[in-house]
Specification:
about 180 residues; alpha+beta; Arc Repressor Mutant, subunit A; 5-stranded antiparallel sheet; 3-stranded antiparallel sheet; 12 strands; about 20% strand; globular
């Protein structure tokens, strides 16, 4: 998970969470987000961004970038006049402003994960969606000061978070329980 200001993004930029709200991104929005966040602080020309999102498309217009950027700003609740995430350099392109950091799960009341064996499976998107809905539903039942996080594939953080639960196809257990006999 990546934290960018008040948003927690999954590694593939398919969705982000802000509190109990989940924000989903289209394929084009994910491509743009990925390119911008990897080039934080660097001016990315509209043409360079267009090449990224419209690879192989002969009918590309630099207005497509403006449209996708506006959709992203709406979803991120960012302002063009006072940007926190994405700044416009008029006549030049866009600059990603916000820094990305690995999410600190150590203060989580509950960490769901890791979930192994999903990569490349046809049901992978459904399981990831199920895990996110599980996180949201648990979060709704807890007080706001109790953070519920998903840590796919990060077993060392799950071990250290108090009250964490490991979920995968073989077992569901609390870290304090014995792992002896697990295969």
């Amino acid at each position: 998970m990546k934290r960018i200001l008040d948003l927690l993004f999954d590694e593939e930029m398919k969705f982000a969470t802000r509190g109990a709200e989940t924000i989903r991104f289209s394929k084009t929005e994910r491509q743009l987000l990925s390119a911008l966040t990897k080039n934080r602080g660097r001016l990315m020309s509209r043409q360079a961004l267009l090449d990224i999102i419209a690879a192989g498309d002969d009918d590309k217009s630099d207005r497509n970038i403006d449209y996708v950027v506006n959709r992203l700003r709406n979803k991120l609740k960012d302002s063009a006049r006072a940007p926190r995430y994405l700044a416009t350099r008029y006549g030049e392109g866009y600059v990603w402003l916000a820094s990305t950091e690995q999410a600190d799960l150590s203060d989580a009341f509950l960490v769901i994960g890791p979930a192994y064996g999903l990569l490349g499976e046809t049901f992978e998107p459904h399981i990831k969606d199920l895990i996110q809905r599980l996180r949201q539903n648990i979060s709704r039942k807890l007080s706001p000061d109790r953070k519920v996080a998903v840590a796919p594939g990060i077993d060392t953080l799950a071990d250290s978070a108090e009250g964490s639960i490991w979920l995968n196809s073989r077992f569901c257990m609390r870290p304090a329980e014995s792992t002896a006999g697990r295969s």
